[in-house]
Design brief:
Layout: E1 2-7, E2 12-19, E3 23-31, H1 33-37, H2 44-66, E4 75-81, H3 85-102, E5 106-110, H4 111-117, E6 130-135, E7 140-147, E8 150-156, H5 162-172, H6 179-187, H7 212-223, H8 229-258, E9 262-266, H9 273-285, E10 289-291, H10 303-314
Parallel strand pairs: 1-4, 4-5, 6-9, 9-10
Antiparallel strand pairs: 1-2, 2-3, 6-7, 7-8
Helix pairs in contact: 2-3, 4-10, 5-6, 5-7, 5-8, 6-8, 7-8, 8-9
The protein binds 5'-O-[(R)-(carboxyoxy)(hydroxy)phosphoryl]adenosine and zinc ion (ZN).
The site of 5'-O-[(R)-(carboxyoxy)(hydroxy)phosphoryl]adenosine (KG4) has 19 residues, from helix 5 and helix 6.
Length: about 350
């Protein structure tokens, strides 16, 4: 089955062609980083307008890359939520309209299900069941995954998402948007152990996260220091270590609680090298394995939407012709497909 995937939930336009027999045929991404940089964060209206400008040219590009004609498409998947309403509507309107014009089914995909299934695009995909750590700009979730759609939330952030904490802390340290990768880069220059910030909520049972106190601890420390590059790097280092260690402690707990050995890590913060290295150690220590999407599919992309859409379309699910999106959409409201 040949599926076209379209992702427009936030500040990246991502499109892909996925064939259930041949795998990923082509994908393309346009990032809006430069557009939003001068505002220090995503401006929703600018995001929507840019998706309008970029989606169709990107679609033409992947059809050319893959040497595929539109009449070969057997289903269309677009991100239905969660995300920015205007941005979602652009992808949903384009996806739904193309599906209608081509006479094929369409499906609205949950963005976090896309992230969660992204490691399935790799050569050695994880088998069900597994624990998934989903850490992006809008969500931090630990999920027990039994099947596609069979999700039980083990823990989630009670305030800022992990990526949001990275972005806000980076902004307060005077780093450019998007803050997460910039802060991680700066942290490499930091002296380990110079500052130690709390590991929030690790002294209580359960797998919930809280990152906003950590952001405050980092900023209060920074404001008392001379604003030198080394001091800034040292604060960044301590912040990153605290976030990473907190996530590792919660992942260990989730594996212990469920008795599972496979851990999937996905979402933008899953691109963080320190997190990847520490979770690898955790998996080895427990005799298990950790699975990641390739780096470019940790952050938003069309490939994960095409793949997740295929799993649901192949199971006979399809959206009706209404263009509807869900800016808020709990992951555990999805139906299981196998
Ligand atoms: O999944 P994603 O691309 O978009 C959302 O669905 O939110 O995640 C973006 C988030 C941003 O908060 C970004 O700062 C963070 O992922 N991020 C990182 C790194 N790369 C991206 N955070 C820490 N370290 C990184 N290397
Ligand atoms: Zn995302």
């Amino acid at each position: 089955m040949l599926i076209l995937g379209i992702e427009t939930s936030c500040d990246e336009t991502g499109v892909a062609l996925y064939d259930s027999k041949r795998g990923l045929l082509a994908h393309a991404l346009h990032t809006q980083i430069q557009l939003h940089a001068e505002y220090g964060g995503v401006v929703p209206e600018l995001a929507s307008r840019d998706h309008v400008r970029k989606t169709l040219p990107l679609l033409r590009e992947i059809f050319r890359q893959a040497g595929v004609e539109p009449d070969g498409i057997e289903g269309v998947a677009y991100t239905r939520g969660p995300g920015l309403i205007g941005a979602l509507l652009v992808g949903a309107a384009i996806g739904r309209s193309l599906a209608w014009a081509w006479g094929v089914p369409a499906i609205g995909v949950h963005h976090m299900e896309g992230h969660l299934l992204a490691p399935m695009l790799e050569a050695e995909p994880p088998e069900f069941p597994f624990v998934a750590l989903l850490v992006s700009g809008g969500h931090s979730l630990l999920v027990r995954v039994e099947s596609v759609g069979g999700y039980r939330i083990l823990g989630e952030s009670i305030d800022d998402a992990a990526g949001e904490a990275f972005d806000k802390t980076a902004k307060l340290l005077g780093l450019p948007y998007p803050g997460g990768p910039a802060l991680a880069k700066l942290a490499q220059e930091g002296i380990p152990g110079r500052f130690k910030f709390p590991r929030p909520m690790t002294d209580r049972p359960g797998c919930d996260f809280s990152f906003s106190g950590l952001k405050t601890a980092a900023i209060n420390t920074w404001r008392k220091l001379e604003p030198t590059p080394q001091n800034r790097a040292d604060v960044a280092r301590a912040f990153e270590e605290a976030v990473v260690e907190t996530m590792v402690i919660k992942c260990r707990r989730a594996l212990e609680e469920t008795g599972l050995t496979r851990l999937v890590v996905a979402g933008g913060v899953g691109a963080n090298q320190r997190l990847r290295a520490r979770l690898l150690e955790l998996a080895e220590e427990r005799g298990g394995r950790v699975y990641y999407p390739r780096l470019e599919f940790c952050t938003d992309n069309g490939a994960m939407i095409a793949y997740a859409g295929w799993r649901r379309l192949a199971a006979g699910q399809a959206a009706d012709t209404a263009i509807d999106v869900l800016p808020r959409w709990p992951l555990d409201h999805l139906s299981a497909v196998d």
